[in-house]
């Protein structure tokens, strides 16, 4: 059987790079990109593209049937900071799209699902350092609540209906090809753009706020390795802790200064500081390492090097 893949939210920060990577691996025609609106022209022209609202089950089912899709990556979501402004819209998008995709799995219309979770599932009472896979969660944001509930639904659908759904708790993701939108970790991308264009950056978090972060190449590789693993190795069907590095705004600024000595950063924390304060500083991903062999490659300096080189 041919493996036809659908990416939902293909124009977003992760979706864009995932689409390129999967097209590279399987061939452009096997990978159908979709989003609620048109995006990056390159991406739309590099293979099949569909306008699709993932909260519309009938429309989703039609695309799945038309292209004989058997694998879905659901990357559409409203991120933490934006979701605080539109709580009910965020809940409806984040949950209904997941229900629709899980139902396709339950009805055996597709055979494999990837759905991203986040470090936002954790909360103020979670151990902050080296946060274990299983810990008190109590997320405080709408986004975090939707991800935690989503994790429970993934595990439930796997246990009860045998749905092959796989998930990672992504940390903040840093890439040069696409911008993030509406997240609390976005500063770690903006800072590189501003360092090159203005030589200075005003950060919306305090300089000593440490958060778990990852370079996009690592995140895409983790996603593909998880999806390629044999089912019996995937012992966690809620979502895996995943980690690469952890740093503060002061540390990323220092890393930039090693290459751009004049760079200056000031901090003016806004409402996103309150969100960051409830999230872990660093993550224990030993289960991902032992179950399916995960290993990160990019640390902070390698990330800075690659970001500055490519953004120039
Ligand atoms: N990067 C996301 C955010 O900041 C967390 O998953 O919302």
Tell me what you see in this structure.
The protein has 312 residues and is α/β, with parallel strands linked by helices. It has two domains: 5-171 and 214-241, Rossmann fold (3-Layer(aba) Sandwich), CATH 3.40.50; 172-213 and 244-311, UDP-galactose 4-epimerase, domain 1, CATH 3.90.25. The protein is 43% helix and 15% strand. The chain has twelve helices and 14 strands. It has helices spanning 13-26, 41-45, 57-66, 80-85, 87-106, 142-161, 187-197, 216-228, 249-257, 271-277, 286-292, 300-311, and strands spanning 5-8, 31-35, 49-51, 71-74, 112-114, 117-118, 165-166, 168-170, 172-174, 200-203, 211-215, 240-241, 245-247, 264-267. The strands form four sheets. It has a six-stranded parallel β-sheet with strand order 3-2-1-4-5-7, with helices on both faces. Strands 6-8-12 form a three-stranded parallel β-sheet. Helix 1 links the parallel strand 1 (5-8) and strand 2. Helix 1 (13-26) crosses helix 8 (216-228), helix 5 runs parallel beside helix 6 and helix 7 packs parallel to helix 9 (249-257). The protein is globular. The mean pLDDT is 97. Bound molecules: serine (SER). Serine (SER) is lined by residues 79-80, 118-120, 143, 170, 172, 183-185.
């Amino acid at each position: 059987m041919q493996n036809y893949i659908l990416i939902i939210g293909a124009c977003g920060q992760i979706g864009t790079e995932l689409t390129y990577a999967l097209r590279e691996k399987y061939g452009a025609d096997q990978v159908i990109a979709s989003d609620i609106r048109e995006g990056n022209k390159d991406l739309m022209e590099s293979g099949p593209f569909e306008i699709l609202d993932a909260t519309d089950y009938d429309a989703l089912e039609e695309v799945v049937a038309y292209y004989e899709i058997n694998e879905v990556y659901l990357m559409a979501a409203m991120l933490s900071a934006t979701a605080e402004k539109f709580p009910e819209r965020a809940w409806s998008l984040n949950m209904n799209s997941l229900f629709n995709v899980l139902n396709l799995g339950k009805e055996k219309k597709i055979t494999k699902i990837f759905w991203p979770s986040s470090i936002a599932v954790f909360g103020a009472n979670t151990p902050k350092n080296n946060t274990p896979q299983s810990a008190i969660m109590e997320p405080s944001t709408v986004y975090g609540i939707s991800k935690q509930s989503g994790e429970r639904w993934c595990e439930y659908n796997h246990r009860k209906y045998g749905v092959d759904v796989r998930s990672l708790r992504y940390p903040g993701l840093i890439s040069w090809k696409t911008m993030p939108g509406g997240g609390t970790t976005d500063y770690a991308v903006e800072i590189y753009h501003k360092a090159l264009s203005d030589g200075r950056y005003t950060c919306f978090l305090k300089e000593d706020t440490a958060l778990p972060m990852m370079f996009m190449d690592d995140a895409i590789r983790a996603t593909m390795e998880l999806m390629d693993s044999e089912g019996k190795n995937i012992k966690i069907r809620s979502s895996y802790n995943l980690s690469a590095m952890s740093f503060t705004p002061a540390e990323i600024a220092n890393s930039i200064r090693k290459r751009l000595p004049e760079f200056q950063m000031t901090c003016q924390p806004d409402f996103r500081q309150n969100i960051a304060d409830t999230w872990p500083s660093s993550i224990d991903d030993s289960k991902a390492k032992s179950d399916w062999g995960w290993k990160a490659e990019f640390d902070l300096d390698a990330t800075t090097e690659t970001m500055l080189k490519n953004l120039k």
